[in-house]
Amino acid sequence: TGSSRPQRILKAVQKNATKGDPQSVISAIDYYCRHKEWAMNVGDDKGLILDSVLTEVNPSMALELGTYCGYSSVRIARLLSPNSKLITVEFNPAFAAIARQIIAYAGLQDKVTIVEGASGDLIPKMKERFGLKSFDFVFLDHWKDRYVPDTKLLEDCGLLRKGTVLLADNVICPGAPEYLKYVRNNPRYESRYYPSVLEYTKAEDGLEKSVFLG
Ligand SMILES: O=C(NC/C=C/[C@H]1O[C@@H](Sc2ccncc2)[C@H](O)[C@@H]1O)c1cc([N+](=O)[O-])cc(O)c1O
Ligand SMILES: [Mg+2]
Q1: Sign of CA dihedral 33, 99, 183, 135
Q2: Would the ipTM clear 0.95, i.e. be above it?
Q3: Which residues contact 144 (CB under 8 A, 6 or more apart)?
Q4: Is 121 among the residues known to form the active site?
Q5: Which residues lie near ion ligand 2 (Cβ < 5 Å)?
Q6: Residue closest by Cα to atom 23 of ligand 1
Q7: Whose CA is nearest to atom 6 of ligand 1?
Q8: pLDDT tens digits, residue range 149-206?
Q9: Is 92 a catalytic residue?
């Protein structure tokens, strides 16, 4: 039994990045996944769009669905203001364990809370568990068939407020057609598509930004 891809990504971070330097962690993962072994991080092309939306929103409370190795957790948390927080939800304990180490290596452990479990189970418990009113920003990057049910769940649990920004990865590749239909035909959302490429490839992909109108 050899190592897993997430374990090899962690090794590449420990070998090539500087402890406490989030940008070097991001660059180390991007280099490894572009030149050695592809992995499903949002990546450097779509990452620049994520960065620009985050800078615009400047969220106090951010939610990420689908942590994987923590690449986008680091991208998000490095741009948060002091006292702002990211909650990231991960279903697979092995992935969560790697992500925790990568987030800590970047020095961002005080800004990021990784919760292990399924988004569908955890979203209804978030208000009570974290004493929060609502999220200012949500990054969707988990199972693509969970984008619509979890968006509806966030609405129903009162976790979205007027102006909350949802940003969804992979709306073209692998694709989230039901989600695009849901947010684009819904008067409660103002949506915009940001064209880009699938991480580390030339295939078409993009991010959908949707503002909840309340
Ligand atoms: O499948 C993709 N992403 C699914 C991601 C899933 C991640 O989220 C949880 S599932 C979960 C987490 C929380 N709650 C419930 C379930 C998994 O353990 C994984 O860490 C994907 C695929 C490609 N691709 O090119 O094939 C490219 C991408 O950028 C992708 O994001
Ligand atoms: Mg993705």
Answers
A1: negative
A2: yes
A3: 170, 174, 175, 176, 179
A4: no
A5: 141, 169-170
A6: 40
A7: 142
A8: 999 999 999 999 999 999 999 999 999 999 999 999 999 999 999 999 999 999 999 9
A9: no
Whether 41 is catalytic is no
**Mutation test residue for ligand 1: of 170, 196, 205, the one with most atoms within 8 Å of CB:** 170
CA–CA distance from 214 to each of 48, 56, 156, 200 (Å)? 28, 19, 12, 36
Across-strand partners of 191?
210
Strand locations in the chain, DSSP E? 61-65, 85-90, 112-116, 135-140, 160-168, 189-197, 204-212
21 is catalytic: no
As for ligand 1, residues whose beta carbon falls within 6 Å of it are: 40, 65-68, 89-92, 95, 118-119, 141-143, 146, 169-170, 173-174, 198-199
Atom of ligand 1 nearest to the CA of 119: 14
Is the bond preceding 174 in cis, omega lying within 30 degrees of 0? yes
139 CA to centre of ligand 2 in angstroms: 10
Nearest CA to ligand 1 atom 25: 174
- The encoded tokens of residue 213 equal 């109108």
Task: Give residue for tokens 């960065």.
Answer: 51
Q: Please, what sign has the CA dihedral across residues 62, 66, 68, 71? A: negative
Amino acid sitting at position 189: Y
Tens-place pLDDT, residues 100-122:
999 999 999 999 999 999 999 99
What's the helix, strand, coil split of the chain in %, to 5? 45, 25, 30
